[in-house]
Specification:
The complex is a heterodimer of chains A (about 260) and B (about 260). Chain A is an all-alpha fold and about 260 residues long. Chain A is built from twelve helices and no strands. Chain A has helices at about 1-35, 50-55, 60-90, 100-105, 115-125, 135-155, 160-170, 175-185, 185-205, 205-210, 220-225, 235-259. With about 260 residues, chain B is mainly alpha-helical. Chain B contains 14 helices and no strands. Chain B has one domain: MetI-like fold (Orthogonal Bundle), CATH 1.10.3720. The chains are: A mainly alpha (about 260), B mainly alpha (about 260). Chains A and B meet through α1, α5, α6, α9 and α11 of A and α1, α3, α4, α5 and α6 of B.
Chain lengths: ~260, ~260
């Protein structure tokens, strides 16, 4: 028994240590974003919100933000809609090779983003398409599709099949039963999937980097400022992006639990 | 999906076998890759990085998942899991950058140590492979803990009671019950961690620095620098082969599941 509590104490310690390690840099970044000094060195000078002003007055950040919003909203709309119908047919049908099709839909999950980006770029430019925001939309949709399908098909497999069968026997068409039974039952999951795919697309950097020519997205702008000399406004934008995605991610997670 | 996912990969596969000079199919690109020191080195550097990352994330995720599953009070379970994996949904780039603030030689840690002891120390940690391993391991820990937790939570608690009744201790409990039953989560977690570690670009650049590039960095600089598509495609395909090999344990898992049901 004594041995047990020793182990438990150790585990408590480990848990809090890891949580501390995960959140420490983010905390420091948030602190620096209010620091008036140009250099990222402790101790802090005085508090300021100048960097936040800078972000909102910098046309490049604003352009990146607009582009990112456009891309990620399109991506999450496309991915959620497609995933809804894919999951519906995957859950409700039973045919030979279904498990292979299942696997096929999930493969992008095990392919590094850099490979999705590179091969799409090679392929599409060999077909004569120039890199643009639309290509980014396609690439990111592929990257978030497996997540959307996993979430939605998980929910759909919990809907009792006989609800739909009852609707059919009462003369409802297949399409009507989808809209009046399956869709409302998946309501929360759909919203959660939408939010989640939005978050992932919004933060995604490497696919956008490859499939884009001139129009920057926010992660690309952040990346270029990081690599080419330091801009203290990064702390501010990083804080904003981090808090936004954290809130969205948690909301999505809570919605999934609600079902 | 077929158009935008499978075709591009096949196209890249074809590119990697084409000789850039005369357009014929050849294996020369692959020989050239392994003949050049910089490619050869970065290939093994990438693998080394990935293995260390898996090692650390499994080593730490296992006790963490165990803790969340069996030690902590039921009420706090979801909360503990969420707090641990929440940053998973946020931008990878920004988190990697925030580590720069902490780890650099003029960063938070050296400042803190100076404050406590009065000594100026140099960490020499940032821009090394250690820093890459560190950054990616943290990511791996989140992922693996989440997946391990999913397997562990399904373990029947009566098994643990039986173990205690029959005179077993913590060690036999972990060895005979928890480890075998959470194996699926462990395998999926390590494979996914491996894939992220070999394919990641942001962390090796921001934390590992550019002097000892990994494959992803080389690929990008090849495309942006010389626009040598065939070499880049070869690197991409080598990465794909490595990943296919890494996925073999997953296949055995799928078979197992099918037999059990």
């Amino acid at each position: 028994m004594k041995n047990n509590s020793l182990l438990n104490n150790f585990l408590y310690l480990l848990f809090f240590f890891i949580v501390f390690v995960i959140y420490l840099p983010i905390f420091v970044m948030i602190v620096f974003s209010f620091n008036s000094s140009k250099y990222q060195i402790m101790p802090l000078r005085s508090l300021t919100i100048d960097w936040y002003y800078r972000v909102f007055n910098d046309s490049q950040y604003i352009e990146g933000l607009t582009n990112s919003l456009f891309v990620s909203v399109t991506v999450s709309l496309v991915a959620t809609t497609l995933a809804f119908f894919c999951s519906y047919s995957l859950v409700n049908s039973n045919f030979k090779g279904k498990s292979i099709l299942n696997l096929f839909f999930l493969t992008p999950l095990v392919v590094p983003l850099i490979l999705i980006g590179i091969s799409l770029r090679f392929y599409l430019s060999s077909q004569g398409y120039e890199p643009s925001l639309y290509l980014v939309t396609i690439g990111q949709s592929i990257f978030v599709m497996p997540l959307a399908i996993l979430n939605l098909s998980n929910r759909m497999s919990q809907i009792p099949k006989n609800l739909e069968e009852a609707a059919w026997s009462l003369g409802s068409s297949r399409i009507r039963s989808i809209f009046e039974i399956v869709l409302p039952a998946c309501k929360f999951s759909l919203i959660a999937t939408f939010i989640l795919t939005f978050t992932f697309a919004f933060d995604e950097f490497i696919i956008a980097y490859f499939l884009n020519n001139f129009s920057i997205t926010l992660p690309i702008k952040i990346w270029t400022s990081l690599v080419t000399g330091f801009d203290p406004a990064i702390n501010a934008i990083g804080t904003l992006v981090f808090l936004t995605s954290l809130t969205l991610g948690l909301t999505a997670q809570l919605l999934f639990m609600k079902k | 999906m077929l158009f935008f996912f499978i075709f591009p990969i096949i196209h890249t596969l074809r590119l990697s076998f084409i000789d850039p000079n005369n357009g014929l199919y050849t294996l020369n690109n692959y020989f050239a890759f392994f003949a050049k020191d910089i490619f050869y080195d970065s290939f093994f550097r990438t693998l080394k990085l990935a293995f260390f990352v898996i090692f650390f994330s499994v080593l730490l995720s296992f006790p963490l998942a165990y803790f969340i599953c069996f030690v902590i009070h039921r009420k706090f379970r979801t909360f503990a899991l969420l707090i641990l994996v929440a940053p998973f949904w946020t931008s990878f780039t920004i988190r990697a950058f925030s580590w720069q603030l902490i780890l650099s030689d003029k960063g938070f840690i050296t400042w803190f140590i100076n404050l406590l002891t009065g000594y100026d120390i140099k960490l020499n940690f940032l821009y090394s492979m250690k820093a890459s391993i560190f950054g990616l391991s943290l990511f791996g820990i989140m992922l693996t803990t989440l997946l391990l937790f999913n397997s562990m939570i399904t373990i029947d608690k009566r098994l643990l009671e039986a173990n205690a009744d029959l005179g077993g201790n913590k060690f036999t409990e972990i060895k005979n019950i928890i480890l075998p039953l959470s194996m699926p989560g462990l395998i999926i977690g390590s494979v996914l961690t491996f894939i992220i570690a070999v394919g990641d670009y942001a962390v090796p650049t921001l934390l590992g620095g550019g002097f000892k590039p990994v494959l992803a960095q080389l690929m990008l600089s090849t495309i942006k620098g010389t626009y040598d598509l065939n070499t880049a495609a070869t690197m991409a395909l080598i990465l794909v082969f490595v990943i296919i090999i890494a996925c073999v344990p997953l296949l055995s898992l799928i078979k197992q599941i099918r037999f059990e049901r």
